[in-house]
Amino acid sequence: MRTILVVEDEMKIARLVRDYLQHAGFDVLVAGDGESALSSVRGAKPDLVVLDLGLPGRDGLDVTREIRRTSNLPIVILTARGEEADRIVGLELGADDYLGKPFNPRELLARIRAVLRRANGEPGAAKEPPAKAIRFSGWTLEPARRRLLNPDGAEVPLTGGEYELLQVLVERPNRVLTRDMLMDLLRGRQAGPFDRAIDVAVSRLRRKLEDDGRNPNLIKTVRGGGYVLAATVEKG
């Protein structure tokens, strides 16, 4: 049974989410503030965190930052209307997905399941058996182990969302992918249009690939179009 940590200071919402996720077969823990959340992450080691950004004390952004210092634990952030800037920062800090309040519990459940599939490489996350290794510009992506190796052979940690984005790009090298296409490939249209989320994810991935954001050579921006992986890709 997967364990979900719900971090929410509004107890009515926390209970609603807890009951819905328990009914869906998850073991659910609840924390009402940032310190309690971090304590639960360290002690209970949940499989995913549903994290409200507007927490008392240490807010959700601080909690996200602290989790990402030591872990690639999947994070789905919740944001109230009017918090778009915080939502963007949350994605930049390494959150895997977001959902705005008010939200439908069914949509939250769908997001959680999708993030868990991406993070754990479960059946259904890919349509065909992955190659043992995908090489591009000195880098190596190992789909079976869901890891990225730099040109020196050292592993570069990726979040579930970063891994999925890189996989989409290496499977379609030298092809312009619009933001809408990337959103479809990564999450499906049910996720809703949010172009800035794609831009943030690309920016984070560029940093992991040591690709200069101001003058990128690997993931190039196509004005008015989208993004393209400018590299020769070899599968083996």
Question: What descriptors fit this protein?
Answer:
236 residues; alpha/beta; five-stranded antiparallel beta sheet; 8 helices; 13 strands
Question: What does this 3D model show about the protein?
Answer:
By secondary structure, the chain is α/β, with parallel strands linked by helices. Helices cover 40% and strands 21% of the residues. It has eight helices and 13 strands. Strands 2-1-3-4-5 form a five-stranded parallel beta sheet, with helices on both faces. A five-stranded antiparallel beta sheet has the order 9-8-7-6-13, covered by helices on one side. A three-stranded antiparallel beta sheet has the order 10-12-11. Strand 3, helix 3 (60-70) and strand 4 (75-79) form a beta-alpha-beta unit.
- In round numbers, the mean pLDDT is 85
N→C terminal distance: 35 Å
Helix and strand sequence: EHEHEHEHEHEEEEHEHHEEE
Low-confidence stretches: 123-128, 188-194
Number of helices: 8
How large is the share of residues in beta strands? 15-25%
Rg of Cα set: 18 Å
Helix content: 25-40%
Strand segment tally: 13
Shape: globular
User: Helix- and strand-based class?
Assistant: alpha/beta
Output the strand order for the largest sheet. Answer: 2-1-3-4-5
What's the story with the biggest beta sheet? 5 strands, parallel
